[in-house]
Amino acid sequence: MVKITLISLLLPIKIASIILNPHSITEKRIGIVCSSIPINRSMNGIRNESRMATFAYQIINRGDILISEVLFNPKTGGVDFVEIYNNSGHEIDLKELQLANANTAGEPASIKNVSAVKLMIAPSTYWVITINQANIKQNYQAKFPNQFVQLSSLPAYNNDKGSVILLSNNQILDRLDYNAKIHHPLIQDEDGISLERVSFSVGANESGNFKSAAATVGYASPTYKNSQELNGGENYARLLSKTFSPDGDNFEDLMTLEYQVAENASLANVNVYNDKGRLVRKLLKNQTIGTNGALTWDGLNDDGQKAAIGIYVVLFDVFDLNGNTKRFKNTCVLAGKLN
Question: What residue stretches are annotated with the LTD domain (predicted)?
Fold first, then answer.
């Protein structure tokens, strides 16, 4: 039997004992989070107006932390990365995690500890594991640059196919068996394009649950929500403002078009026409897009010249590999000072 004694952090001292049967514990290690709750504050626990300490026992279970994104075929000069997502409702210590690949028998191999020191990550956050975080930040937009863990080496992840395995105390938490054929079939060069998880509600190896990251986010989304993650919302494409004036005064200098599509792995063409129906600017041409995002137009035409003041039509055409198409039409005014 295992006996755990809890002592409150504030006087008067109270002691509570809990007896645990080791045979009922499914993991080898129990994480303990202790939080003292002062007046008007809550930290890592439930608000407690009596000022008593709050204790929680947390075991890393399968499904608590998941593989979110993998770059296994970087561009020349680039490096691999694995992104993980805290799918639980509590903090998780990265010191308790390991990364691995698989040997010829399909078993975990080349196991690497994710962190040598205690490193707690908050729920619903994305963390990137790599050997060179500066390289990733240089090649992709990392919205949360502090959510990186840099290792001296990663398990080898081959460019054609392989396995990414996430473990805790040598117990498998999540596993992705990937191959280059998972990438979008219309992508001719997969180098530098990550695979993103579509849904955390189904297994990593469920068919269609990993897709190529969208071109509109730069082909990877390290440290933040995946571009191909399902949103379950309506389809739309709309302008933030009906007018813009690209005069450099930092007020509505750009036309911004927000969009959302229900289908992931979609492609889009986005074109700007003047009031005579003449094509002025191609914003996107057969590029993969995320399930939501935003596009901007700086008021320049395809030749890099300033477009004339006037009314413009923005056509957003989206299509998928099943032949489904949608068109969204928006009208804006490019404003400016008359000479």
Answer: 53-180
